[in-house]
Amino acid sequence: MRRYALKVFYNGKNFYGSQIQPNVRTVEGELRKALGKFCEFYDFKGAARTDRGVSALGNVFALTTEFKLQPRIINAHLPEDIFVLGLREVNLDFNPMKEAKERIYKYFLVDDEYDLDKIKKASKIIEGKHSFHNFTISNENPIRTINYIEVEKKNGIIILTFSGKSFLWQMVRRLTTALKLVGKGELTIKDLKNLFKKEINKKIKASEPEFLILWDIKYDFKFKCENFSLNRFIEHLKREICILKMKEEILDFCLSNISCP
Questions:
Q1: 71 vs 8, 19, 93, CA distance in Å?
Q2: Which end of the chain is more exposed for a tag (fewer CB within 10 A), N or C?
Q3: Cα distance between the two ends of the chain
Q4: Neighbours of 178 (CB within 10 A)
Q5: Exposure string for 183-218, b = 16+ CB within 10 A, e = fewer
Q6: Is 117 a catalytic residue?
Q7: Rounded to whole angstroms, how far apart are CA atoms 65 and 54?
Q8: What are phi and psi of 104, to 5 degrees?
Q9: Which of 74, 26, 65 minimizes the C-alpha distance to 42?
Q10: How confident is the model over 118-171, as pLDDT tens digits?
Q11: pLDDT digits (tens, 9 = 90+) for 15-45
Q12: Catalytic pick from 51, 112, 191, 216?
């Protein structure tokens, strides 16, 4: 028997989340369906659950099988919105959720005249160990540690990078909302600090899922990538970029030619 950890990309827009659910399309469901076409497997586990609409560049799934897996074999049976980018043979008791050392998320935010300095200052307040009870809908222990938050701006897009060992349900999206409110002057630094106090119960709403990406999950090992699968993935992204550019041109053309009939 062999156990494998798979590094997986998926475009979340067409999925009802990563975890398998009845009667809806999920990432886990598609992976199980693809694997079941050519091998028997068991003890399938995921490292992180993502909500409907959230994408991943590096979520991790693990399974045990007698079959010798390769990314290209799995990808041959997967739809184009999921790619196995790499894999690694691991111990038979490997648990991708419990053994993760770091999870990294990126939220992409259109710069709507936010005060970037205020957002950076607020990010420093969020870093460290806190009770994040106002930034989740989970009933789990709300104590978590944020390793760091990076704030950068590129071509009118603000990129927020969150690093931590573990995150609560919707935690990143709700922290993003808080940073947006600070950047707009609608939430003060003092108000933000108060949200970490256990006696304060004031839930922050979650930002849209479509602009969040589970960027990477780190372990004590490196994944082995396959050039064939990586090149195929790169070509897929290039095609997607061309399609989006064409859609942008069509919409721009429509906007410039709107007139009252």
A1: 10, 21, 21
A2: C
A3: 69
A4: 23
A5: beeebeeeebeebbeeeeeeebebbebebbbbbbbe
A6: no
A7: 29
A8: -125, 125
A9: 65
A10: 999 999 999 999 999 999 999 899 999 999 999 999 999 999 999 999 999 999
A11: 999 999 999 999 999 999 999 999 999 999 9
A12: 51
Supply 118's token pair: 């205020």
Domains (range + CATH), the chain = 2-99+223-255 (3.30.70.580), 102-214 (3.30.70.660)
Q: Three-state DSSP class for 230?
A: helix
Does residue 89 come out as left (phi exceeding 0), alpha (psi in the -120 to 50 range) or beta? beta
**CA separation (Å) from 214 to 62, 66, 156, 199, 227?**
17, 30, 21, 31, 22
pLDDT tens digits, residue range 34-77? 999 999 999 999 999 999 999 999 999 999 999 999 999 999 99
One-letter amino acid for residue 204 of the chain: I
What is the residue-wise DSSP string for 8-70?
Answer: EEE-GGG-S-SS--TTS--HHHHHHHHHHTT--EEEEEES----TT-EEEEEEEEEEESS---
Residue 245, token pair as written in the block: 């550019």
Q: What is the C-alpha to C-alpha distance for residues 246 and 74, in angstroms, rounded to an integer? A: 31
- Provide the token pair at 42: 């068991």
Rounded-to-integer distance, Cα 184 and Cα 21, Å? 38
Angle between helices 116-126 and 171-183 in degrees, nearest 10: 140
148/7 Cα distance (integer angstroms): 23
Q: Is this structure's pTM higher than 0.85?
A: yes
Do strands 212-218 and 55-65 pair parallel, antiparallel, or not at all (unpaired)? parallel
